[in-house]
Amino acid sequence: MQVVELGTTVYLHFAVNDTEGSAADGSSPAVAVRRCGDSASADPVLTPTPVLLSASAYPNGCYEVAVEATEENGFAAGETYAVFATVSVDDEDPVGLIGEFAVVAEGASYTSVTNIANVVTLTMRDENNDPVPGVRL
Length: 137
What we know:
Number of helices: 0
Structural class: mainly beta
Number of strands: 10
Distance between the termini: 16 Å
Radius of gyration: 17 Å
């Protein structure tokens, strides 16, 4: 899970495959950001629009979404958020969790933990919020 300061833009990504497993752009992509712990019927905090990455180096179906975690958009320090995405492809509408992040106050000292492919990297931050050399587990 990412830890970000209030006011930061969080970038998340997802990819789409058709029902045969091939990359496909799909249509009508949508994203919803949920404040963890809210009631099941609570509206999303934000519904940013995903962007289809169109440079020739990217295969079909690669999307990026920017989540502006600002007070104006309803985000608050001390809260955790889950980001869900869906896109229509081959008459199906698959949904997936594409990321989670916690928000801390601007200028706060924090520790972030990143888990990618079962490799965990721990990043400590000092009182100036500068990275302290990490520990690899």
